[in-house]
Amino acid sequence: MRVVAVEEHFATGELLEADGIGGPGYPSERLLDLGERRIEDMDAGGVDLQVISLAAPGGQQLEAKRAVPLVRRANEVLAEAVFRHPDRFAGLAALPTPDPEAACAELERAVRELGFRGAVVNGHTRGRFLDAPEFRPLLELAAHLGVPIYLHPTPPPDVVRRAYYSGISPEVDGALATSAWGWHVETGLHALRLVLSGVFERLPDLRVVVGHLGEALPFMLRRVDARLSPEVTGLKRQPSWYLRRNLWLSISGFFFEAPFRTAMEEFGAERILFSVDYPFASSAEGRRFLEGLGFGPQEYAKIAHRNAEGLFGL
């Protein structure tokens, strides 16, 4: 059966340098590769198609004048790779959100001219979330174009890092702020802010994806509803109603059965997408996890490829 992985990453050398990313243990070479080595890994892991996006922090933390040209060039690099391997790769556009007007222009160019299937936003933009007023035209454009936005985690702002994620040890502080805890719950918060600020009420056709089995949202969903009722929020419905309508969840390296079952219970098989989080996780491990869940053919097909095909127009 066809397998589509929807949170798979790449980078360009100039963006890695601009973001100060790299060093021992970081998979720079695999991020830079958009050719045979990546395809060999896909074949070995049983992945038929990758939906590829720019790795965090991307262009979100750069000054606008640097972000715009670097992000445009990164999109052109990815578009060229998709052109060379259209049966194996699809692309999500990186956006230079430090310049919201340029981000709109790049989204339109990427979708209409480069053939991308949506966009990725790597977390906050220098401390601002997408519910900020300056990003309203960008969200409206995504809804108008009918393409999803993938909300991916990024390291927290320095002020948050110092207040919440410091003082234990450099190794623990760094992991706690990012892949062990911090950036996951921040991404869940980001999605909740889109609900509570009324974005999904104003833009019912806006589609958003979050990874890592929902960034803690499935576990917290009923508590959120209990404490943020329409009487409190002023919205027409409970937060879970908007999340179940406008949000999709991908697996992206969370190859753990208990959180998967919670995500299934709260959102259903129709809202879950397979992903690996390449090259930060193993394609083969992801495929084994998917096959080990014991689904019947209909549910398996939805998660393995049909949901992604419908959402991204593959």
Range of helix content: 40-55%
Largest sheet: 6 strands, parallel
N-C termini distance? 15 Å
| Percentage of residues in strands | 5-15%
Question: From the helix content, strand content and strand pairing, which structural class follows?
Answer: alpha/beta
Overall spatial form: globular
Radius of gyration: 18 Å
Strands of the largest sheet, in order across it? 4-5-6-7-8-9
How many strand elements? 9
Total helices: the number is: 16
Q: H/E order of the elements? A: EHHHEHEEHEHEHHHHEHHHEHEHH
Q: Low-confidence spans: pLDDT under 50, at least 5 residues? A: none
Q: What is the arithmetic mean of pLDDT?
A: 97
Description:
The chain has 16 helices and nine strands. It has helices at 13-19, 28-32, 36-45, 64-84, 100-112, 136-145, 158-164, 170-177, 182-196, 199-202, 217-227, 230-233, 239-246, 257-267, 283-291, 297-312; strands at 4-10, 49-54, 89-91, 93-94, 119-122, 149-152, 208-210, 247-250, 272-273. The protein is α/β, with parallel strands linked by helices and 314 residues long. The two termini are 15 Å apart. The model has no long low-confidence stretch (mean pLDDT 97).
